[in-house]
Amino acid sequence: MVRLPPAGRVEAHTEPDLDVLLLVLGGDGTLTDAAGERRPLGEGGLLWLPHGCERGIDAGPRGLTYLTVHRRRPGMRIRPYRATDG
Fold this sequence. Notes:
The chain is an all-beta fold. It has no helices and six strands.
């Protein structure tokens, strides 16, 4: 669950590996895609964001609370350092 304060923002970014389902739980805001198209977000709104798409989120005057759902990311792996790792 993510809570943004009024006028809070998630900067534009791309999720390269995972599709994300976004469910708006409260408040309002907008989602902006790579083409600059703005889509309103409101309570009960449900969006599917395919991997590879760019998006940014801006909370409205009431803030924005949303839940993201996606496959589990692979865990971090600890391995021995090799000189070729940089």
